[in-house]
Amino acid sequence: MIRALSTLALAAVAVLAVALAPAQAATKSKAEIDAGVTTTLDRFYKEFAGGRDLMSRASGALVFPTITKGGFIVGGEYGEGALLIDGAPVAYYSSASASIGFQAGLQSRSQIIFFMTDKALADFRAAEGWEAGVDASITVIEEGASGKLSTETAKQPVIGVVFAGRGLMGGISLDGTKVTKIDPQ
How many CB atoms are closer than 10 A to CB 10? Predict the structure, then answer.
């Protein structure tokens, strides 16, 4: 039984590595990322009461239009997005993480990380490979948790909003997610 599970886990790792490698190697263009960011923000403003207010109060926002997660025992996720300051893209980033444990499925979602203070934004921009849960604690709001952003939530220095999920895979956590600067053309 243990041998069968080990073989299955190794096969899952191989499939996942092949599936995610092209996504990481083929960075989208700035225009593609910017178009996805615009669409994602439009959807966010429609789905979350107070979304525009939150954006206007944030020092910066890291917008990932699509983060794809997949796995069977071993999993991984990847997406690309832009850091917005005063509504304009100033830099581009990838988001990636890996996990092991009871999991199976494939899912995609949109994600926005709001830096509510100048210090939180400066710490993010100064980091070489920022990691959620290590370099900053993130308050996560999921779609369906009322679709509202409370005044109390907005007082947190870093807020993650996860929405527009498609597919089937349980559990949303940003802890352990590694965010790295990229240079799309």
Answer: 12
Cross-strand pairs, 140? 160
Strand 158-168 and strand 139-142: the pairing is parallel
Q: Which of 98, 38, 47, 104 is nearest to 72 (CA)?
A: 104
Chain centre to alpha carbon of residue 17: 19
95: which strand partners? 79, 179
How many domains, in total, are found in the chain?
A: 1
Both structure tokens of 101:
């444990």
The token pair that represents 95 in the structure block: 């988001």
Segment 58-102, tens digit of pLDDT: 999 999 999 998 877 777 889 999 999 999 999 999 999 887 776
Closest CA to 130 of 73, 77, 178: 178
Measure Cα distances from 76 to 17, 32, 92, 107 in Å.
9, 23, 20, 11
Domain residues for the domain of 92 are 2-182
CA distances for 120 relative to 6, 127, 133, 168, angstroms: 42, 11, 13, 32
